[in-house]
């Protein structure tokens, strides 16, 4: 600041070089944008171009294929089960971690983050080892006619595993930042624990919660590796949308594959837009100072 | 109960007037154990029951080694490219103004939101010999899709936001006065960037590198379409796990998974160390 004022007074002095030359700035911006275009924008464009390559009629026809319709239904069903469960867990874990001081808290947070550092294929593998025919539980499950692997329960479990940390990791820094003073005030004024949560905590965290649910849902609907391992790929029964994309693509039915893919890409775009709007509008209400 | 515990030495948690600790903590632990810990422990237990000779036989199998080399080598190359371009993208987003900046900023998160299978078929179409970019480099004798290069392209795609989103907030907090001081002391701009700005960004860049690397190592969906999946050449470790599972060779699948888990957890540990170190050294971390 001080330097700027001196420069204003004495025109002859050159301004200190606190930014690059104009040519450098333009060159760097162009390189960065080209990189993003090649790696992000073009792939996204390709999805929609390929989906509509044979016209709108063919696109709508591809989406009405019975197997694709079944895949869309299954994906929605899985998300409807997995997301609320992880939402409840996320709120409970954030309440325990953020509102209380206890031993081993940092370790608990590390454990919650664990699924993020596990390969999706391994996330599926763990359930194959747990419920497969060779496992301890396998014979018992078969004897009682309970089908977990290669059926909807396995797909739901694998999806819960990979989307496990999303809500909790959004809420923990946010609620830690907000502290417990509001809740203590409400309790001292005679509110019950549940009232305090519903009337004080929830309004404070609602945007951060929505943000976490949004990311959780995007991943739940789009998960491929983990679900692929446990699904068994039974057409019309255990194929989610991403698996349906793979099958159609491998059958060289590119228009069909990209038609289903375009729905997932649309979901990603909507997620990004809502995420950006939330960040723009409620920046402070979403991330605690320790978050991103 | 809390009061009784509080009166004597060690206590599990500090007393508080806020209710619900038992319920929320208990539920969290049970849910965490059922969904994550017990299933993961199952892999380790299964792997341990293999016995060392059997484990070593699978681990030293040339195909296993080739797949691990491809996953870790590809992830290393992709993360290295990502820290260069990711830091550049973060710099352009933080320091420069240009039309459409907000949209570009939002686009960076696309790989987080776009399902990996969709990214996989889109990148393959783009980089195949008859695709827009693949066709562009084909006359140069360069083949991207269905080679290890294609794997690296997919890994760059999924790793990029990790670098940008780790470096960007730290860049925003750089004190401009330090740059002004360097400039008034006679440093050229290049010197200021290299000697003053970059060292401060190093921990963030390193964290971004580790996150992008860890993600790329385990990546499956976006890679398998573009990889070509030729054993010993362009086969990644997660795919080999799937292949072994389809052969009902659970032992081999478990052994490869255990090796990947061990390396991933070592990475996670390293990330935590870097962050703890940078918090001490620079006062910021994650």
List keywords for this structure.
heterodimer, A: 292 residues, mainly alpha, 15 helices, globular, disordered N terminus, B: 286 residues, 14 helices
Protein architecture, described:
- The complex is a heterodimer of chains A (292) and B (286).
- Helix content of chain A is 76%, strand content 0%.
- Mean pLDDT of chain A is 89; it is low at 1-13.
- In chain A, α6 (120-131) crosses α8 (152-163) and α10 (181-188) runs antiparallel to α11 (193-222).
- By secondary structure, chain A is mainly α.
- Chain B has helices spanning 2-6, 21-48, 52-59, 62-95, 101-107, 110-113, 116-127, 132-137, 148-172, 176-184, 189-218, 221-227, 237-246, 250-282.
- In chain B, α7 (116-127) crosses α9 (148-172) and α7 packs parallel to α12 (221-227).
- The longest helix of chain B has 34 residues, at 62-95.
- Chain B starts with a helix and ends with a helix.
- Mean pLDDT of chain B is 89; it is low at 1-6.
- At the A-B interface, α2, α4, α5, α6 and α8 of A face α2, α4, α5, α6 and α7 of B.
What is the gist of this entry?
The complex is a heterodimer of chains A (292) and B (286). Chain A is an all-alpha fold and 292 residues long.
């Amino acid at each position: 600041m001080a330097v700027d004022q001196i420069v204003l007074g004495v025109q002859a002095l050159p301004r200190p070089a606190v930014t690059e030359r104009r040519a450098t700035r333009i060159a760097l911006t162009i390189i960065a944008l080209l990189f993003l275009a090649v790696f992000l924008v073009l792939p996204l464009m390709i999805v929609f171009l390929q989906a509509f390559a044979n016209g709108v009629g063919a696109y709508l026809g591809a989406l009405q294929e019975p197997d694709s319709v079944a895949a869309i239904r299954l994906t929605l069903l899985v998300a409807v089960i997995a997301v609320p469960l992880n939402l409840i867990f996320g709120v409970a874990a954030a309440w325990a971690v953020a509102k209380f001081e206890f031993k081993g808290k940092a370790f608990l947070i590390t454990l919650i983050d664990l699924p993020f550092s596990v390969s999706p294929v391994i996330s599926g593998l763990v359930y194959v080892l747990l419920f497969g025919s060779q496992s301890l539980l396998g014979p018992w499950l078969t004897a009682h006619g309970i089908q977990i692997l290669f059926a909807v329960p396995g797909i739901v479990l694998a999806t819960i595993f990979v989307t496990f940390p999303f809500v909790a990791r959004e809420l923990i820094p946010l609620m830690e930042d907000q502290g417990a003073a509001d809740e203590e005030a409400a309790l001292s004024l005679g509110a019950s624990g549940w009232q305090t949560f519903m009337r004080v905590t929830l309004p404070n965290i609602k945007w951060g919660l929505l943000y976490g649910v949004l990311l959780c849902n995007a991943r739940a609907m789009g998960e491929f590796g983990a679900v692929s391992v446990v699904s068994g790929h039974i057409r019309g029964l255990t194929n989610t949308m991403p698996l349906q994309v793979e099958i159609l693509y491998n059958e060289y039915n590119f228009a069909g594959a990209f038609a289903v893919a375009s729905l997932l890409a649309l979901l990603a775009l909507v997620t990004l837009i809502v995420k950006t709007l939330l960040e723009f509008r409620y920046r402070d209400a979403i991330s605690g100072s320790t978050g991103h | 109960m809390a009061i009784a515990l509080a009166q004597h030495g060690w206590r599990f948690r500090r007393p508080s007037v806020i209710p619900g600790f038992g319920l929320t903590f208990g539920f969290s632990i049970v849910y965490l154990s059922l969904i994550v810990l017990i299933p993961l422990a199952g892999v380790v237990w299964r792997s341990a029951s293999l016995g060392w000779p059997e484990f070593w036989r699978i681990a030293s199998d040339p195909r296993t080694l080739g797949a691990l080399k491809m996953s870790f080598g590809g992830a290393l190359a992709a993360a290295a490219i990502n820290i260069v371009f990711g830091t550049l993208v973060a710099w352009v987003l933080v320091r420069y103004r240009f039309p459409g900046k907000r949209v570009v900023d939002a686009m960076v998160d696309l790989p987080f939101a776009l399902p990996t299978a969709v990214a996989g078929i889109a990148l393959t179409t783009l980089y195949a010999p008859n695709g827009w970019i693949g066709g562009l480099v084909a006359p140069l004798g360069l083949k991207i899709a269905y080679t290890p290069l294609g794997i690296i392209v997919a890994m760059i795609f999924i790793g990029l936001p990790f670098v940008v989103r780790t470096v960007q907030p730290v860049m925003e907090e750089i004190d401009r006065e330090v740059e002004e001081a360097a400039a008034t002391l006679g440093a050229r701009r290049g010197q200021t960037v290299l000697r003053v700005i970059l060292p401060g960004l190093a921990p963030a860049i390193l964290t971004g590198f580790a996150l992008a690397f860890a993600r790329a190592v385990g990546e499956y969906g976006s890679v398998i379409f573009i990889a070509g999946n030729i054993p010993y050449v362009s086969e990644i470790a997660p795919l080999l796990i799937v292949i072994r599972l389809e052969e009902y060779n659970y032992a081999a699948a478990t052994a490869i998974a255990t090796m990947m888990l061990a390396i991933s957890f070592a990475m996670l540990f390293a990330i935590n160390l870097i962050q703890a170190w940078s918090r001490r050294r620079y006062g910021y971390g994650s």
